[in-house]
Amino acid sequence: EEVYFNLLPYIGIFLAVLISMTAGKEVSMGILRNKLIAGHTRSDVYFSHLILGMGITAVLLMIHFITSGICCHIFFLPTRFSVGEQLLCALTVICGSAVYTSLFTLIAMNLHRLSSVSVLSLLASMYLMQRSSRIHNALSESRLVAGEYIETSDRAYYELVINPYYPTGWKRTLLEFLQDLLPTGQLTQIMAGDLSSAWCWPLLSVL
């Protein structure tokens, strides 16, 4: 959905910046050490940032859905997804934000320089986006492609041949699993309008 989900690829970058400026700042300025001295555990700090990332993502989605929905009704723009499918996509995005937040919080709690946390988090987010894009492109390859150009007395045509870049067998199964497992892969499929595996995305994100 270009109207509802056009901001999905940037959620990882947004959360990378957000967690870097919260968890990363706590570590670099000694706030985390003070919390541990006060009796809080690392698990408490970790889950507090997890809830923060998921909560902010939910609020942003709500705002985005409301504004986009109003625009759809004003300009009579069609939507491919039903209300139930849109709610499932929203749940997938929120669960995916938990994966992002967990990763970036883990980075922040193991590094002591805010600049290092910010750079590494952004690089991790961009790497996940790039990997998912390549997986999606590989799975989108056509099985048959135009080969040799043949011209006869009555017609001219290209002979169809097997695409050497078309993944088959265990390789295709592995790529499909990775696309469903990675939060960026899930978001890429939502952007492409493919919800064939959407039922398992929130579960995979939680696991």
Q: Main traits of this protein?
A:
single chain, about 210 residues, mainly alpha, two-stranded antiparallel sheet, 8 helices, 2 strands, elongated
How would you portray this structure in words?
The chain has about 210 residues and is mostly helical. About 70% of the residues lie in helices and about 5% in strands. The protein has helices spanning about 10-30, 30-35, 40-75, 85-110, 115-140, 170-180, 185-190, 200-205; strands spanning about 145-150, 155-160. A two-stranded antiparallel ribbon has the order 1-2. The protein is elongated and about 85 Å long.
Quick structural summary:
The protein has about 210 residues and is mainly α. It has 8 helices and 2 strands.
The largest sheet is: 2 strands, antiparallel
Low-confidence sequence ranges: none
Average pLDDT, rounded to a whole number, is 79
How many E strands? 2
C-alpha Rg, in Å? 22 Å
Strand content: 5-15%
Give the helix level as a range of percent. 55-70%
Span between N and C termini?
27 Å
**Within the largest sheet, what's the order of strands?**
1-2
- Taken in chain order, the helices and strands follow as HHHHHEEHHH
Helical element count?
8
Q: Any idea what the shape is? A: elongated
Determine the structural class based on helices, strands and strand pairing: mainly alpha
